[in-house]
Design goal:
The complex is a heterodimer of chains A (116) and B (397).
Chain A lengths: L1 H25 L18 E15 L4 E9 L2 E7 L9 E11 L2 E11 L2
Parallel strand pairs in A: 3-5
Antiparallel strand pairs in A: 1-2, 1-4, 2-3, 4-5
Chain B lengths: L1 H19 L5 H10 L1 H4 L5 H18 L1 H6 L11 H9 L3 H55 L3 H20 L7 H19 L16 H20 L5 H11 L4 H25 L6 H9 L5 H33 L4 H20 L3 H18 L8 H12 L1
Helix pairs in contact in B: 1-4, 4-12, 4-13, 4-14, 6-7, 7-8, 7-10, 7-11, 7-12, 7-14, 7-17, 8-16, 8-17, 9-15, 9-16, 10-11, 10-12, 11-12, 12-13, 12-14
Classes of the chains: A alpha+beta (116), B mainly alpha (397).
Chain lengths: 116, 397
């Protein structure tokens, strides 16, 4: 019984880990227009696409933070990235979690893809 | 004043309901409240809403151990109580196990109250340095936990694969609230599956006192003060890692461990409000929400919350023991095998609703790892790799 349980568990574990790895490499959230980001999206991962309007870098002894102002068409949103970012990027695709800071929605970027 | 009393009463009722629902984490409740804050603020002030939140959080922290120990359905904060709690349940001492965690929770509130002035004084000085040493400390703790295990290779296997599962879960952008399926699988559904397969029968529960030595109580208190204070400074780690830190420092028996889990659960919750005030960093979902409600969280706000936490703790203590008696009297009357199956079905339905359909894979992988840990005969604490490894990787990648 124990041996059977061990075999089933180990097979299930590896199969689900492989599928999860494939999912994490291939599946991404759909692009959300900035105008459609609402409080109900808080704590959710979303993907946005836009142009960097302003870039602010904060380098302290404890952490490097990049704050980006992203514009798509007429709407803008601030994105916070806890890493350094290549300054030559203009257009970007960002995947991140929606959060709120000082009563304004923002995105905590997990992945930033430089488009041009 | 009347509004405040009403907030406390409603908070206790809400915390009792959320605490008794299997697998429901207080952060999820906070998030739902945060989304609907606009609606509530039409009727009341932010401070009253804050009082409601802390009352609910403290009550939830006490009652949260009931589904974890009696039903084997924990959340992240109570996950490590499942196995020792279950052993007590199988000996007919489920009530005793709850009594230990409840006394622990109550002690946690009192200790947090006492150490708050010192914490406020020290935290701004220590915070910048602790943030730097935490990944090394976590590596050290992980090595220590594995070295202390008799079966080192299986322990390493479980730790690493839990870490891989945790890392994948936290980085899968199509999943909401990834900790829910992760911890439900690792600590909850795995135990329920084993209980179902083995047709576990719950003996008649005895409602009696469990004796714990003074030295054991002191051990539990001291190690939980150390670990809870430590995790209250640092982002990304919480009550469960604090328990892992304590367990790696000193080997303790199950009674002390249950007491310690209770202390840590409420201490981490309360110290997160103290961190919000002293270093302006909230360290729990509940404190994040309160920080947003009260952007200039003042010293008087903090002490109001602490006094309310103390009053609520007294009520929650009796409330938890009252529900523990009801659970104890009825659990042996129910066919436990079918209760396990019912809770398993409930968790498998709830998971995709809360976290999305892909989260079922995390639940299945977590359940398999939990079963493997039991089959291999090693301690469940190694599955804390699910949170420890991603935090280490966050600092180094």
């Amino acid at each position: 019984m124990q041996k059977r349980l061990f075999q089933i568990s180990i097979i299930t574990l590896f199969v689900s880990l492989i599928i999860l790895t494939i999912f994490s490499l291939t599946l991404e959230p759909k692009i959300t227009p900035i105008s459609k980001i609402e409080r109900k999206n808080l704590d959710e991962f979303i993907k946005i696409k836009g142009r960097i309007e302003k870039i602010t870098k904060i380098n302290t002894t404890h952490e490097n933070i990049t704050i980006l102002k992203i514009r798509d068409k007429i709407y803008t949103i601030e994105t916070i990235f806890y890493k350094d970012l290549d300054s030559s990027c203009n257009d970007v695709e960002i995947i991140g979690k929606v959060s709120e800071y000082e009563n304004k929605l923002q995105i905590e970027a997990k992945k930033i893809k430089c488009l041009k | 004043m009347l509004e405040m009393i009403l907030a406390v009463i409603i908070g206790i009722i809400a915390g009792t309901i959320t605490g008794l629902i299997p697998g429901l984490h207080i952060n999820l409740v906070s998030l739902l409240l945060f989304v609907s804050a606009g609606f509530f603020l039409e009727f009341t002030t932010p401070i009253i809403l804050g009082i409601f939140i802390i009352t609910m959080a403290i009550t939830h922290s006490f009652l949260d151990f009931l589904p974890s120990i009696f039903l084997g359905a924990p959340d992240e904060a109570t996950a490590l109580s499942v196995l020792p709690g279950h052993r007590f349940l199988l000996k007919g001492q489920g009530y005793g196990a709850i009594k230990l965690t409840t006394i622990g929770c109550f002690l946690g509130v009192i200790i947090a109250f006492i150490i708050t002035p010192l914490f406020i004084f020290l935290s701004p000085h220590f915070y910048p340095y602790l943030n730097k040493i935490i990944p090394f400390l976590l590596i050290f703790i992980s090595i220590l936990l594995i070295i202390k295990e008799n079966k080192k290779i299986p322990a390493l296997f479980i730790f690493l694969f839990s870490g891989i599962l945790g890392y994948l879960s936290l980085n899968l952008t199509i999943i909401k609230q990834p900790l829910f399926p992760l911890f439900t699988g690792l600590f909850g559904s795995s135990l329920l599956t084993i209980s179902f397969i083995q047709n576990v029968k719950i003996p008649k529960q005895k409602i009696k006192k469990i004796n714990i030595k003074k030295t054991e109580t002191v051990t539990g208190i001291l190690s939980s003060i150390f670990s809870s204070s430590l995790v209250s400074f640092v982002p990304g780690i919480g009550a469960s890692q604090a328990a892992a830190i304590s367990a790696s420092i000193k080997k303790m028996n199950e009674k002390t461990f249950l007491l310690l889990l209770g202390i840590i659960n409420t201490m981490v919750m309360i110290l997160s409000f103290v961190s919000l005030y002293s270093i302006n960093k909230p360290r729990t979902g509940v404190a994040v929400f309160v920080g947003k409600l009260l952007p200039s969280f003042s010293n008087s706000n903090l002490w109001t919350f602490l006094i309310i936490a103390l009053i609520v703790a007294i009520i929650a203590l009796f409330l938890t023991l009252f529900f523990a008696k009801i659970f104890s009297k009825n659990i042996s009357k129910i066919k436990y095998k079918w209760l396990c199956l019912g809770i398993l079905i409930f968790l498998f339905i709830l998971t995709p609703i809360i976290s999305g359909p892909a989260s079922l894979l995390i639940l299945i992988a977590g359940t398999s790892l939990g079963i493997l840990t039991s089959v291999l005969g090693i301690r469940k604490i190694h599955m804390m790799g699910a949170l420890i490894l991603p935090v280490i990787l966050f600092y180094f990648l």
